[in-house]
Amino acid sequence: WMPDPALREAVRETLELPADVPLTKDHMQDLDIFIAEGRRISDLTGLEFAINLREANLGDNSITDLRPLANLIYLEELGLPENRISDISPLAGLPNLVFLIISYNPISDLSPLARLPKFRELHAQRIWTTDFSPLEGLGFDIFADEICEIAPFPPPVTERIQNRTFPSIALPRRTYWGTSNNYYNVAAKHDIHYFSTRFGLYWDSTPIASTEGLSTQLAGQVMGQVLSEYEKYAERNPNMLFFPAVAIGVYGGLDAFPPDSEFWLTDVDGQIIKNEVPWDEYTIDILNPEVQQLVIEQVVGIAECGYFSGVYFDVWAPYHTGVYEELYNIGEEEVIQAYITILKGIRARVRDDFLILVNRNRRKSSRYAEWINGSRMETGVSYPGGYTYERLVEAEDALLWNEKHLREPRINILEADGVVNQPPDGPDNLRWMRVWTTLSLTHSDGYSILRSPGEYGEYKEVPGVYQQYGDHTWYDFYDADLGKPVGVKGQRCDGCEGLFIREFTNGWAVYNRSGQPQKIQLPGQVTGVASGITSTTHIIPDLDGEMYLKKEPDTIVDGTVKVLDIELVIEDPSVWMPDAALQAVVRETLEALGLPASAPLTKEKMLQLTSLKANHRGIVDITGLEFAMFLKELHLGGRNRITDLHPLANLTHLTQLHIWHREVAGMSPVTNLDISPLSRLINLERLSLENNGISDISPLTELEELQVLGLSDNAIDDLSPLVGLKKLHHLNLSDNSIKDFSPIAGLTNLEELWIENNPATDFSPLSALNLTDFRSDVDVNDDSVVNILDLVIVANAFGKTEPDLNGDGIVNILDLVVVANAF
Q: Quick one: how far is CA 681 from the chain centroid?
């Protein structure tokens, strides 16, 4: 009688029923006040028995049908915001209803409320109608939404961009932390605010064309409060830019349109496509002309509201091209043209200095350059410890391209991620903050920010280092005033690849990814913002950046910046990585990740390795790999001769490890390899250890994530350590000394099992396994099935040397028994 488990749970909690007491219809009469917000309730069936209910709050659920409430005649207060309700006619018979909230529902008809005798207050924001005429006889004071249609506030956008000083820091999101004034004071230090700022405004339900109920204009009930909110920023920083976000191809919930709306993009079965992200995100059909028009109308609504400098398009085209091609054989060009149609439609109706910012990450926007002013470039970490040279070069290249080709005025944002599992003032986060700030300064006239690691999201202050607000950190480094740029963007020094220096009116920005420390001489005494050192010469570590302030601000200094020779005290890599062959392949891999060829190999650079493919390189000693702490994939197979695995013992990020050996003339085979150093590599999913003379596999006992395991050509006779490896689907045990296969009988996920050339004769423990690829000597005809055909082949071979399955030199009845036991 109450089918919804979420409703049952909420009712039981309200009634404080013990777990062993069943919920009955009689219990429902005890409900007087029922609060069940955000409980994922979809069906109210059963609530009709709560005949004494006076107050209910059921907001933020998935309710569509109100009929169970129709006879709750004592209801006085009812909250139903943020559901999926379109029909409120069941409320027409509630004689004592005084207060009702139905905001954020697709409701288009209010007439059922017209004859409620005690009705006094209705909250109905963002419903699908602006017709309140059915309520005129109730004597309400109706406070209708006021559409935001005001001229842009001064100063003009172009002046705000030109008047700001550097570094210019972006504020990705607006949320309150700490005291209100404290938040605004820090927020106003930023020169650009994007993603979610709407100053309390929301999308008004203004109909367009045939898409009645869709939101196309920003509105608010008290516009004076909106102005007050805006002024809290503007009075502190008149150069700040504001961008509300519009997700051009996705919506965060299924209540944006009716389920059968043609606005949704569906698969061949008619199901709305949900994107593969951890949150609810559903795809709309951007090829539908009405969807395109809706996006245009929304952005025009933003442009008409003078609080905003432009619009930020989040999720700019990463999903659509692949989805259309996969499901409907529609190519990329048609999708691109849809985006261009939207951009053209917007530009035709907004002011010239209205800014369009898109989320393109590290991609260039060549097809959209004519219409967009900037790109939000999310860098994404390359590995848990930070960024590779390759990732930095990729960001530099895209940023310089955007600075040259996008529509003026330009507003590119470089948004980097902090290192996880380290607080904002951790050494790596401080260094990467300096790297991305100075990369932005030397390659653009744009904005930058380092987002904080997620687990450090609370408000916090560390004097002299940073202030922390949610996922946003304000570092003291940002407080430096470099003034305005003087030098050329992306200017390298002569003869030092990867070192960038740019002059500003109040100082210099220096960014170093050259692969080694650099010593520079500046024309005059300057003070490092991070180092605090005042001198004419300064040393910049590799993968770091610094700002240097002139003694006399707002001056152009005569003279040039010089790069001086530096005596580097760098440990010879052969001390900590003695194998020259391993050194060579490590350097090749790092150079493929952007390490300059002239840069020395150091332990710190080993952290950039996430994959190393070193098969057939003649490696005999893997000492030095212990510094590659973020390796996920390691190949050391073939013509190598590795006898000591201890350097791998702490590489716990490894998911793939391949150490197999091939016979090579002049190289002794590996015998009795000790695999105990692998016992802590609990994230391994694929492990290859073929031809290593291994006899003891007990170190594999705890590697429960293993899915593929290769152990052929060893000396294994005991399989009991494999009992708990339940995720295995491929296991190669060929050419060992195994007589008993019963320990693997419970590995029910096994699909592929190879056991050739083992002395076992009883294969019955394997009979329950659902194998698709079974390779054994008893499968005489090699058809992956052991059956009567194999018996026939053995019988026909009597007196011959093949097939001698038990290896006793005679083909006889014993060989038939081996096959029979394997059935």
A: 25
Comparing C-alpha atoms, which of 375, 367, 376 is closest to residue 415?
A: 376
- The residue to which tokens 């197979």 are assigned: 637
Cα distances (angstroms) measured from residue 449 to each of 68, 279, 439, 662: 51, 24, 11, 51
pTM for the full predicted model = 0.73
Sheet strands (E) in 28-186: 33-35, 55-57, 77-79, 99-101, 121-123, 146-147, 170-171
Q: What sign has the CA pseudo-torsion 527, 529, 530, 532?
A: positive
Domain ranges (residues) in the chain: 5-144, 157-251+290-482, 502-564
Fold of 157-251+290-482: TIM Barrel (3.20.20)
d(CA 580, CA 110): 80
Buried b (16+ CB within 10 A) or exposed e, 803-823: bbbbeeeebeeebbebbbebe
User: Cα separation of 459 and 620, whole Å?
Assistant: 51
Write the pLDDT tens digit of every residue in 276-290: 766 677 888 999 998
Give the residue ranges of DSSP H helices in 53-194: 157-163, 180-187
- Check for a shared fold between 5-144 and 157-251+290-482: no
Note the CATH architecture for domain 5-144: Alpha-Beta Horseshoe (3.80)
DSSP codes, 67-84: GGGTT-TT--EEE--SS-
pLDDT tens figures, 367-403:
999 999 999 998 888 888 889 999 999 999 999 999 9
